[in-house]
Write a structure and sequence with these properties.
Length: about 300
């Protein structure tokens, strides 16, 4: 007999649901569409959209439909311009929270601030935001990195999926290192409350559980980060994409198992994992921790 604790906030965020709805609806109306990258980083979602006519392409050169969709991660103004120039219809499923980060980066860059983004340089969202600064923004995860501050004016932004906690640590150390080179400092908190809620819910579960299963795409930045929450609390943590990846040995000697999922993970993947845990344990009691996402209701 095991107890399964399901996080109070897990799975799809509003930006992902919105992007899937937009792409699904447009693919249904048209003769299929090409999506510039994966709409969300989850294999089941990508396969589901593919079956409805939304085909992932890595670049515009490979687009085979008249309509091209930009994903929840957004893109740069150059790519948007290119889509129009080449005569494609544009469907923009950029998450509104990402759009806000793009706007802030553009406006402050144009106002003479050096934009510094706390994030991963290769992430599609970050590449897009950099594009809105005419590629002038610097991306780093290292607060000690040597960065140019040509006009002694700096704005600090974050990749949306970074936690507020890690962004605030970055800001503190960045300022301590560079204070003597800065006349004016702006901080725009572009972390996404949706992802932070999932990190916080995982943290809250820690005292209840002996191991954690984190469900989501291996290429999903927010899911990888979610797995780090309980890993850093020294709780055995397994990041899986599908229920059949669960190794029965993981349950040896464990009777309290946590389940959470990244912002790009559909309910069906979560249900499959709970079902598989019940099968493997023989007997299980499921505890769904209470709470809803205030952010989801605010933005949806
Ligand atoms: S995690 Fe946040 S920023 Fe990213 S798509 Fe979801 S709501 Fe938008």
């Amino acid at each position: 007999m095991i107890d399964i604790y399901v996080a109070k906030v897990l799975g799809f965020c509003f930006g992902v649901r919105r992007a899937i709805d937009i792409v699904e609806a447009e693919a249904g109306k048209r003769d299929g569409i090409s999506t510039l990258g994966q709409v969300v980083h989850n294999p089941r979602v990508v396969a589901g959209l593919n079956s409805k006519g939304a085909i992932v392409v890595s670049s515009l050169d490979n687009a085979t439909h008249k309509t091209v969709a930009v994903t929840a991660h957004g893109t740069s103004p150059e790519v948007l311009e290119d889509i129009k120039k080449r005569g494609f219809n544009l469907i923009d499923a950029t998450c509104p929270i990402v759009s806000k980060a793009q706007r802030e980066a553009k406006e402050l860059s144009e106002a003479g601030f050096q934009v510094i983004i706390y994030g991963e340089a290769n992430h599609p969202e970050v590449r897009g935001v950099v594009g809105w600064t005419k590629n002038q923004a610097v991306v780093t995860l290292d607060p000690e990195a040597d960065v140019p501050i040509p006009w002694r004016r700096v704005v600090l932004l974050s990749q949306t999926t970074k936690s507020q906690r890690s962004f605030s640590e970055f800001v503190g150390r960045f300022v301590a290192k560079n204070m003597d080179r800065i006349n004016e400092l702006r901080l725009v908190n572009t972390t996404c409350p949706e992802t932070d809620e999932r990190y916080e819910a995982a943290r809250e579960m820690a005292p209840l559980i002996e191991m954690m299963i984190v469900i989501g795409g291996k290429n999903s930045a927010n899911t990888r980060k979610l797995a780090e929450v309980t890993e850093h609390m020294h709780i055995a943590t397994y990041h899986i994409e599908k229920a059949d990846e669960i190794d029965p040995h993981w349950l040896n000697g464990k009777s309290k198992v946590g389940v959470t999922a990244g912002a790009s993970t559909p309910d069906a993947d979560i249900d499959d994992v709970i079902t598989q845990l019940k099968v493997l344990a023989g007997e299980a009691k499921v505890h769904r921790l209470e709470g809803t996402s205030a952010v989801s209701s605010k933005f949806s």
